[in-house]
Structure formats: C-alpha cells, structure tokens
Write a structure and sequence with these properties.
CATH superfamily of the largest domain: Dehydroquinate synthase-like - alpha domain
CATH architecture of the largest domain: Up-down Bundle
Strand content: 15-25%
Largest sheet: 6 strands, parallel
Bound molecules: nicotinamide-adenine-dinucleotide, zinc ion
CATH topology of the largest domain: Dehydroquinate synthase-like, alpha domain
Radius of gyration: 20 Å
Number of strands: 10
Distance between the termini: 45 Å
CATH class of the largest domain: Mainly Alpha
C-alpha cells in the first residue's frame, strides 16, 4: 500500500498507465460528483473506458442495501477482475467502495482518492472497509488494501468547515499519541482553513500508515489510534439514538478531553500536561452539553464496544504529549469522573 500526496495528478496517470485496467469504475457521492469529479476527469490522461457510479451522500447510505445495488451495477457492467475501482470521496465512499471492490468476484483492485480531511488522514488508509448494519457501525467488512491512495489537498477547498474540523480532530490525535512536534504545529494554527492545514496532512498520513504497517491486525500499537474514541464513540452513538447526531470529530475531541483527564487520574500524565492539552483542544472545538446522559448509560454503551473483550473497558491513554499506551483498564469511577469534569467545564 502506498499513499501519495499528488499535487498535479501525474502520479495517478503514471499509475494507470502501468496498471492498464480494463475499465475504471469511479464511485462518487452526490457532493464529490459535483465538487471533485470534474477536476479528476479534467486531469485524467487515459483512454481506459470508465463508468461513473453515484450514490447519495451520508452515513445512512453505508448499508447492505446500497452494497447490493452496487454489486448489481458491477454485474450489469460486466466488470471483470482486471477493472479498477476508484473511490472518490470521504470515508463513506472509501469504506463502501473498498468493501464492494474487495468482495465482488472475490476481489478486484481499487484505489482511494479521499476528498475529506478525515479521509485523507485516516479513513482511506489502513485497509479497513465496511458497512453499517442494524444501527451497528462498520459491523460488516473486510480487511483489504487499496493498490494506492492518492491525496489531492485541493479537494478540501469545497469542504464545509465542520467537516474540515472533524478531520482535524484525528490529526490532533496523531500528534498526541505519537508526535509532539506535529501536535505543536497543529495547535499553532490560528485559523482552521484548508491552506493552513495543507502543510501538515502528509505527516498525519504517514503517522497513520506507519502505525498500521507495524500492526495491521490491531493486536497492539494500532490500538493507540483509538485514543479519544472509547468515550467518543459512546457519545456519538447516544446522540445519534437521540436523533441529534454530532460529528465524528466533535465526538472524538470530546473523547480526547475525557481520556486526557483519565490519563491524569491514572497517574500517567501530570495535571499541568492534562490542562495544557485540554485547553488547546477547546480552542478548536465547541463545548457539547452531555448532561442528558448518565454516567451509567455511557458506561454501558462502552462495554458493548466491539474493541473490548471479556467485559473490560480498554482505553488507549497518554503517557506524555506524543506518547501513548494501550490496553489500559480503567475503573468505572475514573471514567465517570472524567465525564463529570467535562460536563462542569466553564
Ligand atoms: P463522508 O464520506 O460522509 O463525507 C462527509 C461529507 O462531505 C459528505 O456529505 C460528502 O458528500 C461531503 N464531501 C466529501 N468530499 C467533499 C468535498 N471535497 N467537497 C465538498 N463536500 C465533500 O464522511 P467522512 O467524514 O469523510 O468519513 C466518515 C466515514 O469514514 C464513517 O463512515 C467512518 O466509519 C469512516 N471511517 C473509516 C475508517 C477506516 O479506517 N476505514 C476510519 C475512520 C472513519
Ligand atoms: Zn475517528
């Protein structure tokens, strides 16, 4: 798997010339059709026949029904195993497209061209594909690597601010868990705009890729990428159940605040370090009122997280800025304390 920051589409064109697929299947959603596909088509220098497959935008469409439609479309197109699927979109498209490509005829090659910041720095890298089923996120899926990932930062220019900020939460996480300099660079950004984020995308891509390469099957170090996600996922699900969804990055930022506090309560970092991290996270993310949920309710959801085993809630926690550990068992009391701390923040 290679991920390439391609400024001018030349590397994508070279890749296609070498691979010589029989057909290109370009998967887009309605937004990437409008905002990203024209640029891609303008820059593609190839005679290979292509088909555009569009699905509606949104997580709600990351379902078995959509997958079934897509498998049927490939069958109608008489797609063979030498075709290449091009997933042009955010994490929904790269997850769904990767899933379809890795299962159709037992697998056809695919590449990811992520168009959201979250996609560029996180979702398109790491070989996890999947769909949601019966309200469970990513419950059906495969491990399958794209042939390559091509990142064109200019696609971020049309991305709504909240989506940019959501991806930025994952970048901050990369800094916190592995790279103090990256964290310092990111928190120095005054104004969250695509141009200000561009210079740091490559580092985040490399951090994610490096962690995944060391531990593809998530037996050890890959678990550190779950920092902020144990509490983050639980709250993301609770807000969704309430019919008031919050963005993934907002939930992760909230989760990172609580889990930084837990790192302190577990004596892994000092109160001063914890306060520094939390005040910087709060510069970028608005406070979310979580008073509607009880500590018990949140704990119960966390116990069901598929990343846990034998009923223990496992956390990845910080030992300093730029360093983290995994498989930390945390007493319920500390989890509840961290939530209370968050809720009572001014
Ligand atoms: P998304 O794909 O839904 O994109 C967010 C929104 O932005 C959508 O409305 C989309 O149409 C729009 N959009 C995309 N690119 C655009 C552009 N350039 N300009 C304007 N609008 C654009 O969501 P996401 O945040 O990219 O990804 C979230 C998904 O990723 C979730 O389903 C999550 O489960 C998955 N994910 C997967 C992994 C993994 O390792 N496989 C990791 C993290 C997240
Ligand atoms: Zn995440």
């Amino acid at each position: 798997m290679i991920s390439i920051l391609d400024q001018d589409f030349s590397q994508l064109n070279d890749f296609l010339t070498q691979l010589k697929p029989t057909q290109l299947l370009i998967l887009v959603d309605e937004n990437t059709h409008e905002y990203c596909l024209p640029t891609l088509l303008e820059n593609l220098e190839t005679e290979i026949p292509f088909e555009i497959i569009e699905i509606e935008a949104g997580e709600e469409l990351k379902t078995l029904e959509t997958a079934t439609q897509l498998w049927e479309i490939l069958t109608e197109f008489e797609t063979d195993r030498k075709a290449l699927m091009i997933n042009l979109g955010g994490g929904v498209i790269t997850d769904m497209g990767g899933f379809i490509a890795s299962t159709y005829k037992r697998g056809i090659p695919f590449i990811n061209i992520p168009t959201t910041l979250l996609g560029m720095c996180d979702a398109s890298i790491g070989g996890k594909t999947g769909i949601d089923h019966q309200f469970l996120k990513n419950i059906i899926g495969t491990f399958a690597h794209p042939e390559a990932i091509f990142v064109f930062p200019e696609f971020l220019n049309t991305l709504p601010f909240e989506e940019l900020r959501s991806g930025f939460a994952e970048m901050l996480k990369h800094g916190l868990i592995t790279d103090e300099k990256h964290w310092n660079d990111l928190i120095s950004i005054q104004n969250l705009t695509p141009e200000n984020v561009f210079p740091f995308i490559e580092t985040s891509m490399k951090i994610k890729q490096n962690v995944v390469e060391q531990d593809f099957a998530e037996q050890n170090i890959r678990k550190t990428l779950n920092f902020g996600h144990t509490i983050g996922h639980a709250l993301e699900s609770l807000f969704l159940l309430k019919g008031k969804p919050i963005m993934h990055g907002e939930a992760v930022a909230l989760g990172m605040i609580c889990e930084t506090r837990i790192s302190m309560l577990q004596d892994l970092i000092s109160e001063e370090t914890s306060d520094t991290i939390i005040s910087n996270l709060r510069k970028f993310f608005p406070h979310i009122n979580v008073s509607a949920f009880s500590g018990e309710e949140i704990l119960n959801l966390m116990k069901n997280d598929k990343k846990n085993s034998h009923g223990n809630i496992n956390f990845s926690l910080l030992t300093e800025i730029g360093n983290s550990i995994f498989n930390c068992s945390v007493p319920a009391e500390n989890i509840k304390n961290s939530l209370l701390y968050y809720q009572n923040m001014p």
